[in-house]
Design brief:
It is a single chain. The protein has about 350 residues and is mainly α. It has two domains: about 220 residues, HUPs (Rossmann fold, 3-Layer(aba) Sandwich); about 90 residues, Tyrosyl-Transfer RNA Synthetase (Orthogonal Bundle). The protein is built from 13 helices and five strands. Strand 2, helix 2 and strand 3 form a beta-alpha-beta unit. Helix 6 packs across helix 7, helix 9 packs antiparallel against helix 12 and helix 10 crosses helix 12. The relative contact order is 0.15. The structure holds tryptophanyl-5'AMP (TYM).
């Protein structure tokens, strides 16, 4: 079976962007693929964070995965730092990563510009190498992510090819450059709709955990009245009717897209349903759809988070299964790179 891996950082509340761009698609894929979903706690410490909150955030994120429908009889769910091979492979990969490749990463440029050179840890730059290690350790075929991770995936692919070329030796050359004896070259899976969910307060910026205002995002665990309030206050416009794809109406396009996915309708159906609607009517419609969609997730979340023994069991089993695959790849890399093995 083809393999899929993906993960979310345990920083802040998980929002609709994380769900529609990534998690919701994982659920659809777990029946047809071998799947591993991790909580990327090591990625969550690249910017200043609260040590008191990290372990709790990792648990909460795991509980969200399960509440959204990740099925542990099919998928392995684990915490990145529980599988040591991630960090080990990262070092080995770092030695083959040109610094120019990392300097070009948009997320690095944005985040480091905000913080300033003296306040930016080296890990903010090397972050995509750890992400490549998360993916390449499992010989993954596909990585379901939102649009913002596309560049990191391209770097992962280039890095896999480079290591295959540098250390794959004669075996690699015989394969004529297809596939690789060390790493499989993975492909991103970016959904046709939901790949870039935008902020509720500005249709031109992405919905994000780090935006200062909570009004800009719908969190998966937001109660009904909070959702209603955020939608009530979200940015709209004064054009007549509602439509997709009008560049002058980014908020309208965003809200219609969200509504389309959570109501499982086609774009054409939604375009028709909403073309003559006013904002007031549509806001009620999307609020109800969001509340109906998120309610069962929230009920399951409460059940799961109140059973720590169950959650620990899931994460322990997930880490054991993941480590078996990861350790085999790591051993291969050490051998290919010429290390003395015990
Ligand atoms: P993170 O935690 O920022 O986001 C998790 C997932 O949510 C997607 N996403 C969005 N999708 C649509 N619209 C949005 N507004 C939006 N915001 C976030 C992201 O694209 C991502 O799929 N580096 C990654 C985590 C990571 C990872 C990996 C992912 C580390 N190792 C290996 C896949 C495979 C990140 O920071 O995601």
């Amino acid at each position: 079976r083809k393999r899929i891996v993906s993960g979310v950082q345990p920083t802040g509340a998980i929002h609709l962007g994380n769900y529609l761009g990534a998690i919701k698609n994982w659920i659809a894929l777990q029946n047809s693929y071998d799947t591993l979903f991790f909580i990327v706690d090591l990625h969550a410490i690249t910017l200043p964070y609260d040590t008191q909150q990290l372990s709790k955030a990792s648990r909460n994120t795991a509980a969200i995965y399960l509440a959204c429908g990740v099925d542990t009889s099919k998928a392995s769910v684990f915490v990145q730092s529980h599988v040591r091979a991630h960090v080990e492979l990262m070092w080995l990969l770092s030695c083959s990563t040109p610094i120019g490749w990392l300097n070009r990463m948009i997320q690095f440029k944005e985040k480091s510009r905000k913080a300033g050179d003296e306040n930016v840890g080296v890990a903010l730059l090397t972050y995509p190498v750890l992400m490549a290690s998360d993916i390449l350790l499992y010989q993954s075929d596909f990585v379901p992510v939102g649009e913002d991770q596309k560049q990191h995936l391209e770097l992962t692919r280039e890095l896999a090819e480079r290591v295959n070329y540098l250390y794959g030796g004669r075996k690699w050359k015989k394969l004529g450059g297809r596939g690789g004896p060390i790493f499989k070259v993975p492909e991103p899976l970016i959904p046709p709709a939901g790949a870039r969910v935008m902020s509720l307060t500005d249709g031109l910026s992405k919905m994000s955990k780090s935006a200062p205002s909570d009004q800009s995002r719908i969190n998966l665990l937001d109660p009904k009245d909070v959702i209603a309030n955020k939608i009530k206050r979200c940015k709209t416009d004064s054009f007549p009717g509602l439509e997709f794809d009008n560049p002058e109406r980014p908020e309208c396009n965003n809200l219609l897209s969200i509504y389309q996915i959570i109501s499982s309708k086609t774009k054409e159906e939604v375009a028709q349903e909403c073309q003559d609607m006013n904002w007031g009517t549509f806001k009620n419609l999307i609020t109800d759809a969001l509340v109906d969609h998120l309610h069962p997730i929230q009920v399951r979340y409460e059940e799961i988070i109140s059973d720590p023994a169950y959650l620990d069991g899931v994460l322990a089993e997930g880490a054991t299964k993941a480590a078996a695959i990861a350790d085999a790849t790591l051993e291969n890399v050490y051998q290919a790179m010429g290390f003395l093995r015990r």
